[in-house]
Amino acid sequence: MRLQGTMRINAAGHLEIGGCDTVDLARDFGTPLYVIDEALLRSNCREYYDAFTKENSNDLVIYAGKAFLVGAMSRIVAEEGLGLDVVSGGELSIALSSGFPAEKIFLHGNNKSPAEMLYALKSGVGRIVIDNYFDLETLEKLASQEGVRPAVLLRIAPGIEAHTHSFITTGQTDSKFGFTLANGDALNAVKIALASNDIVLKGLHCHIGSQIFELDAFRHTAQVMMKFLKEIRDELGWTAEELDLGGGLGVYYSDGDNPPSIKDYAVAIQSSVDDCCQKWGYPRPSLIVEPGRSIISPAGTTLYTIGGIKDIPGIRKYVAVDGGMTDNPRVALYQAKYEGLIANKADMSAQEVVSVTGRCCESGDMLIWDLAVPKVEPGDLLAISCTGAYNYSMSSNYNGLPRPAVVLVKDGSADLIVERETYEDLRRRHRIPPRLLGTCRQKG
Ligand code: LLP
Predict the structure, then answer these.
(1) 25 beta partners
(2) 363-410, pLDDT tens digit by residue?
(3) Alpha carbon of 160 to those of 44, 167, 261: distances in Å?
(4) Which of 259, 293, 371, 410 is the one with CA 20 to 30 A from 117?
């Protein structure tokens, strides 16, 4: 397992994160446990801040909360000077209740409810990103009712497929997100927004996908969006103040992943936009980016206790842990590949190859296939790295498993930032109608 951030192997031969021995963390907080390396998280935020906002003070980095958003995370993001992208009233409430400045919050979503829009309007969020005609109409109506004129971006589907090895420019026109560029919907939406007295159109938004390694995909997107802005100016005489190019920078999960640096990503986008502006004499819009994964993924590690081991000689050795697809659904969902380490035997050399399976009642509940480890025994502690993004936020209570706790580690201290769920939490909202409370039928 590649050691991330402040990870090191200490004198006891244990994996340490943020100066905390993971064996102690497991003892004190139980497993499964999400551990967040605060120093690495902050340094990722700063890299983004420096690469964008430092040079162009009008540019803005907004952290995509969908990757991982809890109160403490929201505080750190605010302290580091980033804005925040939320996609629901729930995320908005987490951010606002932690004191996140409303004016630096962007509300996204392809099907925001009127209640969520109203919540955003009343709390004075900085931008609402309009995804479709229904969004547009709903927001205009609500804004007029409320007597406010919200600043908006229009989400455009630029028709770029970034997930094929060499991206193509037609694939993603078939997308549920945004106004389609290719068929004229995008231009039509701009016209409606500009004519509206209820909203103020600040610029355009797009997001081409996630876990992207090819900078050319981002360059190309920037060019396509700038070209569209130029066409709008030519036709309507309007110039955009802002261009939001979404998130998507890929990260290292396992051997073979080779993501570009944040700095290189920033340069790729900025130079593409600058070139277009120069070529067409277009005033440079403020750039906005929305990274999620590349800020939080490497800062997160999950700790598990190993339980049952099933050896099928000549076939496979299954090592089961006390979590699984409930705390990390990404392996089952996307065939994601992770690296792991036996945290209490971190200095020992590999002796066997095992496959790590979760505890859910599904054969697909695997965490790592073919992991080289020292001799493992029940009670050993397994660390899986780079689990910070889209693990806690996509976790579930499948099989009645309470969600794990989350601790924030830094300089040898560990703070609980999300409590472990209890059985009581699982039952809290259940209601049994009185008519079901009669005596149960006896045998016979
Ligand atoms: N902006 C928008 C509009 C997005 O839809 C997303 C991610 C982001 C920003 C942040 O993208 P990032 O920098 O994190 O790549 N559950 C999947 C990932 C879904 C991404 C959804 N949108 C996973 O676990 O891989």
Answers:
(1) none
(2) 999 999 999 999 999 999 999 999 999 999 999 999 999 999 999 999
(3) 27, 7, 22
(4) 293
Q: Which of 170, 192, 196, 195 is nearest to 183 (CA)?
A: 170
Asked if 146 contacts 125 with a C-beta cutoff of 8 angstroms, the reply is no
Kindly state if the Cβ of 293 falls inside 6 Å of ligand 1.
yes
The tens digit of pLDDT for each residue in 73-95 reads 999 999 999 999 999 999 999 99
Q: For residue 136, how far is its CA from the centre of ligand 1 (angstroms)?
A: 23
Rounded distance, CA 171 to CA 104, Å? 32
Instruction: Say if ligand 1 is within 6 A of residue 64 CB.
Output: yes
The answer to whether 372 and 350 have CB atoms below 8 angstroms apart is yes
Runs of H (alpha helix) within 147-292: 185-195, 215-236, 262-280
Question: What percent of the chain lies above the pLDDT cut of 90?
Answer: 93
Between CA 11 and CA 31 the distance in angstroms is 23
Closest ligand 1 atom to the C-alpha of 330? Answer: 24
**pTM, full prediction:** 0.96
What Rg value do the Cα atoms of the chain yield, rounded? 24
| Residue 419 CB neighbours (<10 A) | 13
Q: Is 108 in the pocket of ligand 1 (CB under 6 A)?
A: yes
